[in-house]
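Why does residue order matter? Because the sequence determines the fold. Keep that principle in mind as you read this record.
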Amino acid sequence: MNQTSSTAEEILRLDSISVTYPNGTVALQKTSLSLKQSEFTVLLGLSGAGKSSLLRTMNLLVVPSTGKVHSAGIGAITGKRLMRAHRRHTAMIFQQHQLLSRKSALINVLTGRLSEYPAWRTVMPLPHADVQIAYECLQRVGLGEKAFTRVDNLSGGQMQRVGIARALAQQPRLILADEPVASLDPTTSVQVLAQLDRISREDGIATIVSLHQLELARRFAQRIIGLADGRVVFDGPPADLDQSTLDQIYGNTNVQSHTTAGAQVDTSDLDSAEVPIQAAI
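Structure:
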């Protein structure tokens, strides 16, 4: 059962973090945020607004110039050991999928299990229990029948669903998705975000997605964090996002709604198909 935002467990806290790159570019001004279990949050803003920098500080792919990142059960993340412990429970979904193109969907999802093992164990095969977890994750995103298909034979939307399954196989507390639908058509974008939203609610995972598209943010987000020039200019529910705030986020440009907002989700290919687990690795 989902908890309300007031009672949900805090998964991540950012205390006065900022990011200044070596060339002097200030990508993120001092920011403090708290992220809760089951909460589906969208980072909204133009390119260069600071969305990716903020997202990547959450798993320390970008190390903050100031401030601290606090993770549930770990505390302030300092040093490589605590960073590894935090990343073990933090999954990442990328815009360009970052899959092993010549490997099967199942093997790609299995890579999400590698964080459970020592660094020296980076080769297959993994135990049967991990294979079962990976296959069940593919079923949850409607790709059970594609388990043994090479990912370079899948569509862009199917590849992104493999990326979601890989993140899910990590059994995370936190999912970070960096522009996960930027390269997808409107209908497929809705399908991918709908699955992320469902998984977030069903599994109690805090999910943070960076997007350009206002209509997608309004459709799926419980919480929107709007950024402009490296600064948070809005943090609240979609219903509170007024025209004045949109002008701050988008720089007084005329924000247009795209066809994605009205796209209908086709769930005909999302039903799980029973495929026997074989020795695929």
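The two ends are 36 Å apart (CA to CA).
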